[in-house]
Amino acid sequence: MLVKILDKVDNYMDAIKMSCDMLEAEGVVENRYYDAILNKIEEFGPYFCIADDICMPHARPEDGAIEEGLCIIKLNEPVDFMGKTVRVFFTLSAKDNESHLGLMRKIADVCMNKDKFNNLLKVETEQQLMEVF
């Protein structure tokens, strides 16, 4: 799991690009993974926005996913994602249709627990962010 806390980004694409670059640097995804995510957004809109403040960008395993991975980017200032406000990006990679289910359970556990999610929004260091999970 990779984590990054930023004060702000210019747009949602910057946050997704940064998360994909971090995953690529770790050998989790190929360079084309970011473009595949943008293509999904172009085709389906902001469906990655799964709740207030939460976005889960991802692409299909055949779109450049090498292995299971997760990059969390938390923004101190929210960014607009096609009309949705987002502060946390959970960029997910899965090498097949099932390997990411454990990661999805961890994300759901944090996002569905108000206390954990509020803690996530308040963390100030990347170490604290890791500890939430």
From TrEMBL:
It comes from the Bacteria. The keyword Cytoplasm applies. Residues 1-133 form the PTS EIIA type-2 domain. It is found in: Cytoplasm. InterPro entries: Ascorbate-PTS_EIIA_comp, PTrfase/Anion_transptr, PTS_EIIA_type-2_dom. Keywords: Cytoplasm, Kinase, Phosphoprotein, Phosphotransferase system, Transferase, Transport. The keyword Transferase applies. PANTHER family: ASCORBATE-SPECIFIC PTS SYSTEM EIIA COMPONENT (PTHR36203:SF1). The phosphoenolpyruvate-dependent sugar phosphotransferase system (sugar PTS), a major carbohydrate active transport system, catalyzes the phosphorylation of incoming sugar substrates concomitantly with their translocation across the cell membrane. The enzyme II UlaABC PTS system is involved in ascorbate transport. This is Ascorbate-specific PTS system EIIA component. It comes from Terrisporobacter mayombei.
